[in-house]
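G., the chain you wanted modeled:
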Amino acid sequence: MKITRDGTTELGPYYTGIADSVSPCDPNAKMKCCSFTPYSYKETFKWALKMLILPGGIAVAIIILLIFELYDNVVIRILTSVFSTITTFLIYLYSREKLLKEYHRIRNYEILEPGKEHELNIIKNPMLSIGFVGDIMMMNEHELVFDTPIKEFFKAVPLIIGNLEGIMPEQNNKFAKQSHIEKILEQLASLLKYNNKWLLCTSNNHSVDFGNKKFFESTKKTQNPKDEIKEKFNAFGRYDVPKVFVEKKLCISTATEWSNQKCWDCTSQFEDSKLDSYYCCDDDVKFNILYPHWGFENERYTRRKIQKKAEELLTCKSQEIPEDKKKKWDLIFGHHPHTRQPVIAVEDMLKKPDGTRLLDNQNKEIIVKKLVAFSGGNFTSGAKWVRRKKHIHGIIMRCKIGPLDKNSDYYALGKLRWENTWNVKDGKKKTVEIGIGIATRTRIYILLIGIATLIIALLPRILELFP
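Predicted structure as tokens:
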């Protein structure tokens, strides 16, 4: 499989042949030493509140309040007031997220369920199979392992696309920054079979946490790793490589909506004017894929404005320009929220360059179904504390692309399948497995802890009955 920067230039020689830092990337640009989120102050405040939404915290607070009712003194009354306030606030945050989830619920699109083979369009002679995963987060000291069903899922997929969050390698791992040890590529390569390859996105909010020069060096090492896995990786997402061509017929573009740093001109960016330039209009290109770093962290729902943006990118419904000038993407697979979000199908009516509807042999309008996965969640995660249970869930997907049966000049998605995944911890090892995750098990643990806490608190009163 030939992957190029512009249809002819292969990525390996291109990255090797240019300077470490070129305009507009200033190698001496100062970077923030610590940054939690890339958002505005208002969105950062919302982000902090979402981190407090832990149902277990509400349960523990309520249990403590019940225990306090057994005692009557000044200290307990003060503590009761404090915990009542905390409990009310936590319940408010939890209820608010539930209401937002309902408000932003997918209403106007077909939601695709996991674990099923979906045929969005009837195609003939599939041109290519493509695989997708979400964020590849740093593993810390954990060893990354892939379960056999994961390997089987991708075994017939020649190209897998994933987001390498942060840079690689960087030994000086600072607070609130993402960096990988070089071994991550060897671990990712263990997922591949036969002639599979990785296409890793390097455009995300952590890309330039360690500066522009480190970002350039990391991209080169991602593209050209050690000899035994040298042909297994390709990288894109730098400002000069926002897209790649696969066999000249398929174009894959990436861009980030966010950065934790002010100086991030050397990454491909999610702006309307730039997205237009990332779209491939070449006559040979039959299919355009967008792999954006967008949305908001820790949200399991997709905001309405993002739903509308996705539909606009796929259909260009609101653009008052000639049909042959519209830049309609064919597939969107997003990342950044670190949580799983819905996978939906969006219908688009095919039209001729003059704007009239395209008809099939039976004089019926040709409607093609396109796809958007709003967030692939986390494919891998080495989180150890608060996020160790929240950020271990993801989505994997594979799909076939080929000429539409009703009009072979147009390429579309054929059969596709997606699955939920999660990271299972076993000592120093983390295994990526297919499955829903640990939500149910977590609630059981919280319940048991609550019961144990209540028994311990009541024990002194019980003992008072026995002199």
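The chain has ten helices and 18 strands.

Shout if anything looks off.
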